[in-house]
Amino acid sequence: MIVLFTDFGxxxxxxxxxxxxxxxxxxxxxxxDLLNDAPAFDVTASAHLLxxxxxxxSVGTIFLAIIDPTVGSAERKPVIAxxxxxxxxxxxNGLFDVVAARGSEVQWWEIDWRPxxxxxxxxxxxxxxxxxxxxxxxxxxxxxxxxxxRPSVDTGDLCRIIYIDxxxxxxxxxxxxxxxxxxxxxxxxxxxxxxRTFSSVPHGQAFWYENANGLVEIAANQGHAxxxxxxxxxxxxxxxxxxx
Length: 244
Description:
The chain is an alpha+beta fold. Helices cover 19% and strands 30% of the residues.
């Protein structure tokens, strides 16, 4: 299975072009769209989202993950990371640092293989998609083993909003297991309390809860929390311990 995780957006030609390459090189392999509207150019936020969502996929899954604002630069290396039996193919710019920091068994390789034709601006199609397809077919491209790199993004919990979904729910970079249920979240002048489910609070009321992937999420019962609270990507959150 190949899982796509990109900031390409759900419209436009880019995801389709990558899928065409995957279909050409690995036609029998299932391709799953996990997320194609990851925060644009935001490697740190995307790294935390990827770490939260990868756990529901089985060992052997190949993640084709492209958040690549410095595509084509000499400093950014193309890499494969193997973390607890799952493969991650994409730019070595910190996107896989959170996954690796939380893993038990980790290996890194720099991809030496290059296609005959490589555009300066679309390595997702020309380089990373063929490599992911070859891995899915049981082949390993020309690579060099790397030492465990020093993380280039913050691998600890992020006290900020990293994604806003279709419903207006705001996902944070905080792992809910690290937060006491008696704690509140302050966003500007607003103070939110914990609730276990949407129906635990009155219609339209905002709250925080643990989402299905273990992150702290801000929501409103049958309401659009982002509009209600004027929330945006990158907004910071302050934890208020033990509300009474």
